[in-house]
Amino acid sequence: MGWGSHFYTPPHCPSPSGFVKLKQELERRFPGALDVSGQGTPEVTGWFEVTVGGHLVHSKKNGDGFVDSDPKLLKIVAAIESCLA
């Protein structure tokens, strides 16, 4: 599990399960290949960011919203596949 993906969400996020659901889906798609972690942002609200291999690939703050559709998920999956290749 040397590959890492990090998610930044506020601790009082209206849908903290969004992180959990995304984590579970990515671990289902890439069993044993990921090191997924979450980090709260207590000083800032409204963040939900996904970093893959050190690169920001999804940002609610920058207009991507939550990962709530297949195109958003597939963008993250493609970034992971690229890192694992």
TrEMBL record:
Record's Gene Ontology CC terms?
Answer: cytosol
SUPFAM superfamilies tied to this protein? Thioredoxin-like
Provide the alphabetized UniProt keywords: Redox-active center
The organism named in the record is Geospiza parvula
Q: What is the recorded name of this protein?
A: Uncharacterized protein
Q: Where is the signal peptide?
A: none
InterPro entries the UniProt entry points to: Selenoprotein_Rdx-typ, SelW_related, Thioredoxin-like_sf
